[in-house]
């Protein structure tokens, strides 16, 4: 009963089809799906990292602006204290030098106006005002920057260099003969 010819509807050794696993079981397909899932996970992690960094930068910016706004207010308070001192000085000068007292009061009034103007502003307002002034008066701003640079250059040039001062201090420890140390 065993014949070499297969029966209809049955598969024999000569007509055995090769086994092909379903597409979802193919190693290449599984590897592709895994790579796709990894890429999606990495993309999601990257998006979350970007959002976290953006949030941190936003928070840091808000804190920095708050700190700078507090410093502007502190500066306005300091100018206010200087105004009070100038007015007291003007009162003391009334007897001996009334013209000088008038100049000091006038300067105090201008400083008080500046203080009040400064108190009502934020850092963004101050930057905007400075930017607008620079656009309107570029020559004046360039001239002031040049003057400030020149003054800074003169101050640094007139200060004794550190290494010369250290060299002079070091040479005081040695006697007339090189290598003879007197101690300090």
Kindly describe this structure.
The chain is built from five helices and no strands. The chain is an all-alpha fold and 184 residues long. Among the domains are: 36-123; 137-168.
Compact overview of the structure:
By secondary structure, the protein is an all-alpha fold. It has helices at 27-93, 98-119, 123-136, 138-158, 162-172.
Question: What is the secondary structure topology, with strand pairs?
Answer:
Elements: H1 27-93, H2 98-119, H3 123-136, H4 138-158, H5 162-172
Helix pairs in contact: 1-2, 3-4
Average of pLDDT: 78
- Unreliable stretches (pLDDT < 50, length at least 5) are none
| Terminal CA distance | 119 Å
Kindly state the percentage of residues in helix.
Answer: over 70%
> Beta-strand level of the residues, as a percent range?
under 5%
Secondary structure: number of strands: 0
List its traits:
184 residues; mainly alpha; 0% strand; elongated
